[in-house]
Amino acid sequence: MSRQLITFELGDQSLGIDIMAIREIRAWSPATPLPNVPAHIRGVVNLRGVVLPVFDLRMRLGWGLTDPTTRHVIIVVRIGEQLQGVIVDAVNDIVTIRPEDMQPLPDVGSSQAAALLEGLATVDDRMILILDLDRLAPPLADAA
């Protein structure tokens, strides 16, 4: 069965998240830092009365710290019962992935990024890394 992904950019990389997990895409707004949280947790923002944890996807994948600017966006995703924000460089488009378009990750040894990915897909000659949200953002109590 085909599935739809929202694709986005982190540096030169194209990544995708299942569209069913996405609640909204919003402009970057500074997060209020929290003490004693993992380095990839940038803090929290107020989303219409809901306190939303925001994490730096680039940092979570082990690709360095994002220095957010007004061009960055926050993708609000539902992981389990919690809404969380993910900082990305830019949102691209919606793509449909057929099962035959998905490929498993090659065995490249233990890698922090590979442990957070569901697989790869090729769409129009570009390689998209598919994020596994359940592995990407464990509950905050488990991430500390």
Automatic annotation (TrEMBL):
<dbReference type="InterPro" id="IPR036061">
    <property type="entry name" value="CheW-like_dom_sf"/>
</dbReference>
<dbReference type="InterPro" id="IPR039315">
    <property type="entry name" value="CheW"/>
</dbReference>
<dbReference type="InterPro" id="IPR002545">
    <property type="entry name" value="CheW-lke_dom"/>
</dbReference>
<dbReference type="Pfam" id="PF01584">
    <property type="entry name" value="CheW"/>
</dbReference>
<protein>
    <submittedName>
        <fullName>Chemotaxis protein CheW</fullName>
    </submittedName>
</protein>
<feature type="domain" description="CheW-like">
    <location>
        <begin position="2"/>
        <end position="142"/>
    </location>
</feature>
